[in-house]
Amino acid sequence: MSNPFLILSDSSSTSTNPYSTASSKVVSIDNDSSSSSSSSTTNIYKDILEDILLCTIDEQPSSSLIYLAELAIELPENFDKNFIDQALFERLHMIDPSSQLLTSITKKSTIRNDINMITENRCIHYLVGCYQRLLRQRNHFKLVFEDIRKLFIDHTKTAISLPDLYDGQDLSKQWLELLIDGQENPLLYEYIDCINNDFLSEITDEIENLYNFVFRYIYKMIQPLDYFSTELITYIGVLKYLAKWPALVRIIFRLSHPKTTSNRSIQHPFGQSGGGRAFEDTLIGSLLSKSCLPSLPGKPYLFFEKPKVMTEHDVDLTSKTMWQPMRTYQQNLSDLFLAFVKNGDVRNDILKWIGDCLIENRGKNKEWSSHNPLTAYLYVSDGFLLNLNFILLNFARPFSEPYSPKLLKINPIYAISQNENVHLKDLYKDTPMIVRD
């Protein structure tokens, strides 16, 4: 069975990658090569098939492996990179790999973890597993390392570009699982770097769709989490890692703007939120809204639900329990936004989002807003604005330190500017502390 998608892989690519060696050698099979050299090359590719792909073409393997029946029937004359490519294609398109599992005739038992790894049927998880096994044995396969490594990258890119080939598999969910696991496994982030660097240089609809679903998954998963949840910090870590790609930051803030209504799933008692409140019902807004304060009237407080029956010791202990994780969470939020704005290509998108958010929620600082409970459904919560203020104060710190040379970078007439290009529009309409003549 030939691989009809082999043409999608550009084997002649000379793009730089983090795994290239000083002298990259490619194994080739020359008609005039000695039989010993040919045998050695064959053994290398057979080792890759069994040790890296965890597959076999032998009906009686020495260890538990997945049997590739079609490849065994159509054995090529020479074992080369195309042989591994065909093996990958057959393995990835198996509906149930466990049905082709051949148990070792020498090893009486195989631990369950090994079986799960051998029979892995999730496309991206299987490819990244092969990738890691190859890296661990790169010295053994150094002659063909670059060729085989690129095969795994190319098959991953093909899966992302043509997700219909893997009908029934949620590739965006698999990709998110990879991003989460990567925080404890640097090899996974190296693998993701290779894919992102190739795809995001000129963003395509396929990679944009993948990350649209990834960010919507994150939005959905963080809804029930409180600010002291370690799982929430994990998702912030994923976003912080992805912040180095401008295209992804742009997608995040586009999805987090109320004009993109398709990313909101929460329905409030008075209908879908609009105006300033709509900023809270987005990915970035949801992160900012995590607080010890309730986000809506009627919701319980996380702490001090019955303060009158608490002793002074209980109040003090609860305060420490509440504030320490709150400070940690706010610092993580601040670090995330700092990672965003450090990316000069998308800084304008971020500042525009902040400016639009403050403008749409301007009514919250009016005196009448505190007397009308319905305004809670019109504007973002107190916790949201406290977190945003913490972030903005951290941004301002380098400019506000005594004798800081950065003070001279502050434009004193920004607050009265009527230029339409500023991020915080109509600021000049607010009541100033010093009346301008």
Automatic annotation (TrEMBL):
Signal peptide: none
Region: Disordered, residue numbers: 1-22
Keywords: Transferase, Ubl conjugation pathway
Pfam families, alphabetized: Ufd2P_core
Ranges of compositional bias, category Low complexity: 9-22
Pathway: Protein modification; protein ubiquitination
A single MF term (Gene Ontology): ubiquitin-ubiquitin ligase activity
GO biological process: ERAD pathway; protein polyubiquitination; ubiquitin-dependent protein catabolic process
Enzyme class: transferase
EC number(s) per entry: 2.3.2.27
The Ubiquitin conjugation factor E4 core domain, residue ranges: 285-427
Gene Ontology CC annotation, any one: cytoplasm
Protein name, per record: RING-type E3 ubiquitin transferase
Coiled-coil parts of chain: none
Reactions that this protein is recorded to catalyse: S-ubiquitinyl-[E2 ubiquitin-conjugating enzyme]-L-cysteine + [acceptor protein]-L-lysine = [E2 ubiquitin-conjugating enzyme]-L-cysteine + N(6)-ubiquitinyl-[acceptor protein]-L-lysine
Gene source species: Rotaria sordida
